[in-house]
Amino acid sequence: MQPFDPPAVRSESLSNGLALRLAPRPRLPVAAVALVLDVGETVVPRERAGLAGLTARCLEGGTARRDGAELAEALEGLGTELRIRTGWDGTTLSLTCLAHRLPEAFQLLAEVVQEPSFPDGEVERAIQEKRAALRQRRMDPSSMAADAFLPLLYSSGSPYSRPLAGSDETLDELQLHEVAEFAHRRFGPKGGGVVVAGDVDAGEVEELTQRHFGNWDGGEPSNGEVEAE
What we know:
Blueprint: E1 10-13, E2 19-24, E3 30-37, H1 51-58, H2 68-77, E4 83-86, E5 91-98, H3 102-114, H4 120-138, H5 141-153, H6 168-173, H7 177-186, E6 193-198, H8 202-213
Parallel strand pairs: 2-6
Antiparallel strand pairs: 1-2, 3-5, 3-6, 4-5
């Protein structure tokens, strides 16, 4: 078996609280970028369960500069796909591109998270997609068993006792404007970080991070606290 020699990870921090982790790996001309936000489903009240994941999903619906189709076209032009995942304790936006397209990737990533537009049509579409996913989940025995097990494992006051994606009932109560309000209140640099790995120059990555995220402000870090339910 060929030994694996992991690269040394370089750590920096921006003045706004955003961390930078850099792992150069020059064997292939590819770079992977991940933006980690300190916001997950644990900060969402029970009656709004699923809001954090829905908000993150709606980031794909467009920005102040381009609508959803134009954003998708820009990502396709980079030869990449934006992947967004929300868990209990954080949200991650990630993409992989050719190393020489890294400046464009940083610009798009910053635009998506700092200038989201949340048009009502895109939010409504995301809600309907979530409803369809919930219906499909109810048809899968293993998913049903996992959801039924949660309240047995965790106390009723814990956010972990409910399904991560929320429910039809919480979606019924959700108002479209709450998505933009949640992003404005919670999405920010504090407690989060940028992780870059691949065939990259450390100085360039530091400059790109400072240029695109250095003036980013706002957002409340979760600090592991759960909003009152």
